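Request: Give me one sample?
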Amino acid sequence: MILDYYFRKPIFWDYTIAIIVVSILLYIDYLDKLIFPSIDRSLSITSDLSNVGLTLAGFILTLLTVLITFKSASKISKEQYSEDDTIFDLFFVSDLYFITVRILKNCIKSLIVISVVGYAVKLSLPQECFKITFFYNIFALIVLALSVWRCLLILSKILHLQK
């Protein structure tokens, strides 16, 4: 399944997709077919995306903390599980738990990087280079959207296990 391939290297695919879209937009800009927003609006969007990235990182960190807490409360181990244990408990002793934790942890790192770079772009870029903020905003928006989508997929699978 394509999602299995995506989940092997989700950060790589997020950034690759974002780079491809930004490259296409750069080509459209090269053809003078792109209309840019004002510098104030672009900088405002950069701040908004950075704030959203940090907020999402906090929510995902909370989800990760809850998962780790549930695992510590689980009484079964990989060697002693039985058919009577719930699927949710089996999730905690399976390799899927560790894959999920790794994916969520890397998602937090990616969101923090996007946020810090956004603030750095806003602080250090001269107004003559405002086009860069537009392309950064597109890049950050794609990475943020794919990160949230990935976390929602994981969360929905975990909720499905609880049924």
